[in-house]
Amino acid sequence: MGLIVMDLEWNQSSTGREPEVAKLPFEIIEIGAIKLNSEYEMVGEFSELIKPIVYPRLYHITSKIIHIQMEDLARGGRFTDVSKEFLEWCGEDPIICTWGPSDIAELQRNLRFFDCPLLNDGPVKYIDVQKLFALAFDKDKNNRISLEHAVDAIGIEKDIPFHRAFSDAYYTAKVLAKIATGHPEVLKFVSFDVTFPPKTKDDEIFVDFGTYSKRITRVFKDRETALRDRDVMSIVCTECGKPIKKKIGWFSPNGKQYYAAGICDVHGLIKNRVRIQKYDDESVCAIKIVKPIENDGLMKLQEKSARAEELRKKRKEAERKAKEFRSSKKR
Question: Which of 103, 161, 177, 217 could form a disulfide with 40 if both were Cys (CB 3.0 to 4.6 A apart)?
């Protein structure tokens, strides 16, 4: 198993609006990567351009950001060939590291579209260096900053230009090495891409990170089915895994995130959060986070619940008035 720090560049519809091919909104045009050893030293490089065939005209903003022209891409290889070469170069059971969550998802989407072997036909474990940087160096642990900002913040020398796949992989590897040296305790917080969810209950993923736990459920046929599932909607303790006394029942401010809280007699206040991941065929999986909170965290959740209830009532009233209006028009 090796560490592969990867960065991708991709093209899109030349209009910059809706994708011309719904199943491939972004087409990969460059793969850059750095291979690291167990000491986080650079021991290998990969850099290849890919000739686009789905979006053969380069989106003008993409061209400006990555400083590349169609003439360069025309000399690139086919995605099927380059991706095969890249995955062979990665070796067996690589742990891929990226700056942010997008690259893994786009690689999986491109592999599926071009009928290539996937990284995995379920969730892919990877290291989100952007997230680890926030945990290690940023007071706002959920803050997402640019790679260049991170490089400046921890004093890494900028010796090659940014915004090409290889150079961004190079700087991401440098940041990861700094994290591993100064804050190795955050390296355990791995991420999972759910472009392809677990297929069965036996395939579900559960990880206990110590300070919180994460469950990625099997695929359900729709949101309603997921929200009726006992494992998804039970309010449990992150420490002992047992059901706890409800303090705040399940609510959602947006129909995507669901929250609840309870109290464990042994371990105190616990927050449960469920995010619903929706797929093209209306199927979903649920990503459940369970973590301890303090009294101020409970108060914030109560305020969020109250706002959600107020919005729900307003929507219901608006629907009632709209129904009355339609009935009056019919008369």
Answer: 177
Reduce the DSSP state of residue 199 to 3 states and report it. Answer: coil
- How far apart CA 176 and CA 133 sit, in angstroms, is 8
Q: ∠ CA 324-255-317 to the nearest 5 degrees?
A: 20
Q: What six digits make up the tokens of 186?
A: 């955050």
**Measuring CA to CA, which residue among 271, 265, 266, 257 is closest to residue 308?**
257
Domains identified in the chain and CATH numbers: 3-188 (3.30.420.10), 198-314 (no CATH)
CA distance 158 to 94: 27
Which of these, 133, 101, 79, 38, lies nearest to 277 by C-alpha position? 101
Name the residue type at position 160.
I
pLDDT digits (tens, 9 = 90+) for 65-124: 677 778 888 899 999 999 999 999 999 989 999 999 999 999 999 999 999 999 999 999
